Amino acid sequence: MKAHSRPQIAWLGVGTLIGAGIVSSIWFLQPVKQDAAESDSGHLGHYATVKSPHTPRTNLHGSELFETKGRLAADKDPQAAWKKSMGMTSFAERLAFVSGLLRELAKTDPMAAMTMADSLPAGRLRKESYDAACAGWASVDPAAASQWATTNLKGPQATEAFGMIVREWADADPAAAAAWISTLPTGLLSEGPQSALVSSWAAKDPTAAAKWIESMAAGDRKTGAMEILAAAWGAQSPSAAMEWADRQIDKPGGKDVAEALINVLGTQDPATAAKWVMSLSGDLQASSVNMLLNLWVASDPKMAADWAASFPDGVIRTQSVPYIAQTWAATEPRAAVEWARSMADSTTKQEAFDNAVRTWTSVSPSDLTAWINTQPAGADADYLRGLASGVLVESKPLDAIAMTGLIGDPAARQTALAHVLNRWGNSDPAAAQSWITANHPPPEVLAHVKIIPPRP
Length: 456
Prior knowledge:
This protein is mainly α. The protein has helices at about 10-20, 60-75, 80-85, 90-110, 110-120, 125-140, 140-150, 155-170, 175-180, 190-205, 205-215, 220-235, 240-245, 255-270, 270-275, 280-300, 300-310, 315-330, 335-340, 345-365, 365-375, 380-390, 395-405, 410-425, 430-440, 445.
């Protein structure tokens, strides 16, 4: 893939051989003057490091400094600058400098910039050089840049460069950028540019972006565009995004739209997301609740727990409340246990309570033991010790046995000890049998213990 066929670049080879050797490159070693950095009002993608014509010299460091030098070099002697850059020993500095140089050069002589990029060996420098050149060209003539890129770039290089072109194009004429994208084959070559377009378009005019997406034929490409729009729109205007999503729910891709919107709102505004989720129905509501809870419990477990507890009796509540208790207990076990304990009696409350206690036992058994010891003697404390000992035996069997000894009710104490010995016997039968032989537990306990010795 070469760009040498264009007449506009006929001078480049001669210039590189003759001019570069004799033109002074002292400018390359000079600091960037305070008023020399050029402004660029267009969308610069990840090459946008100089945003003001009066960027102070002291504000430029590392890559920013060398990118700025590269841009300034494009107006002086780009061939000499190119030759000089190839001798730079720091890859990061060379990459920044070349990116700035080619982005700026492509605005006035795009084919020269492309030829420079094409002369590099395969690798990151070549890839990002094409990206920078395509971005610069697209900032002044996106139609020409897209035509050249479609003809000359292939594979992953094309995907990245197409995205750079679209980012520039979308600011000025998103409809024209959309028309070009529609000519690209379905797959990776179109996914990146389409994502860039929809994200940029949604920031300026999400309604227009939605209208364009609606005109697309049903399929993976349309669904992908809908997901990007839902996320971008939801981040800037949740209410408008939810209204649009409501109209998509029953259409192909509606589930994907809901998930994309919840993924944004679940971290940005989970309370608003919760109201919208409860307006959904059927399996979509159930899956949306689970997704939102996963996000919400990570940021505000108490609010997530209270929301889950407010669900009416049914499958969603039965599944959600115990899950919240278990997840919350991993970071705030006491709060999770006390929350579950405060709920009205039900099988769901019992499962949530059990999950929280088991998790606390795994996270910090000493803290749980200390907390249980503060509880009034009676059935609740006995139940807690029996439940915790059944988990504690997996890591500290002797501590688990000691915990069962604190259970006040004799029958409950014997049941808990038998349970601990059976679980210990499953994991380490020799050690469990040795403890039984040395400690002589009551016959009422041994009657319920069955330890199978390991095979020789």
